[in-house]
Amino acid sequence: MFTNAQQLLIKSIIVISLSFVANSYASTENVNTSQRFLTEKDIHQMNVLKNEALSSTLSYQIIESLTTEVGHRMMGSVGDELAVKWAVDKMNRLGFDKVWTEEVTHTQWHRGEALARIVAPYAHKIVVIALGGSVGTGDNGITANVVHFNTLADLKAAKKGSLTGKIAFVSYRMARHIDGNGYGKAVGTRVNGASIAAQKGAVALIMRSVGTDDNRVAHTGVMRYKEGVNQIPAAALSNPDADLLVNQLNRGNPVSFYLKMTSHIEPKTIIKSANVIGEITGSELPNEIVAIGAHLDSWDVGTGALDDGMGVGMVLSAAHQISKLTVRPKRTIRVVLFAGEEIGLLGAKQYMIDHKDEIKNHVLGAEWDFGLGRIYQMKTGVGATALNAVREFAQQLAPLGVSLAASNDAKAQSDMGLLSKAGMPSINFSPDGSRYFDYHHTENDTFDKVNLEDLQQNTAVYTMFAYFAAQTAVDFRK
Ligand SMILES: [Zn+2]
Questions:
Q1: Helix (H/G/I), strand (E/B), else coil: 33
Q2: Helices in 250-359 by DSSP H: which ranges?
Q3: Whole domain around residue 457: which residue ranges?
Q4: pTM
């Protein structure tokens, strides 16, 4: 029960919130009367597409199909090969006008097996996973004492030679945040930690997983060796296992750790994959491209439902809904399902080479590579005049609870970030990313985590976006 004072407070909060809502609607109406970029017909069409997406299960079915019939699909794996065929077939069935593939190649890496345990003072089995691209330990594994660092900066500050014969351990824990900003602060250890540790003499790097969960499941992800530095094995511990190791280290006695990994690189074996591309041809400006993308590959754990099955489902469904319209929007909508994102944006890099002369024709782009949450914000990276058109579009998204960010410097996510850097105007949709890093790059990235209603909302936003960008003749660079 509430006291009178509390009730009063609640009432006034409600009144304030309602007047805030009323004000925002009032300003929305004001702008509506002076619309210059969207016609009544466009707005009607967009709302028809929205309502269809909100009641359709197509994107959900696409993710179910990908995770069931293909499963995980690390570049160069059997699953990856299957995924390319799956994507070509899906695009053809979904009514794309043109569907093709563009080859992407790389060298082979094998994950192998990873085993770990604390040997002394208190023996425990430890859950670990090899970081993507890591070398192995050799058949006998590595047994060495652990040196503990709270952060990557602490590891960097260690003296040269101070880790000789030791295993370096970074226990930094990623913070949970709605926009996922904890990831950027944590991922440096995963990408660069091994070479930094090796420069100090370490024989292996172990780290707390880059993840926000409390499961006894470890998170993989790509790592890189610095040229000219000794390549040492690198592995991530599950969060509870990292805690266990910290607890032993906190007692102040030497902690001996055993790590065995059979992962290995085959620099001479070239693996092949492909970007899969499909288009809905524009009715008036077919050479102008609205690019919407996701990555087709995944890590070889889980089934890649969230990373990036979600994106695949959303962009395929958006293009399909638009393909059914009797009058197509003016510009071409190009869906790009990128290869090899996880191991280093390989598909995107190849796309930049293959489409070098065509990047200028990419009028606007967006990629989805941020998992399962509901979109709450749109961020823009467009010209000042075009921003007015985007503001009109934002009014159509407002009823879905999507606001427009104040800044105008957005780059597209993941692969399409390279196109953004090359000058493609971009839109970035921000979802609630609070839970994404519970599952990211783990065995728990599976279809059951996909929430139908959130997916429908996100698919509606993407469908409306693709239509808006293809239908308005505005130059988004200006
Ligand atoms: Zn991803």
A1: helix
A2: 310-323, 346-354
A3: 36-107+269-471
A4: 0.92
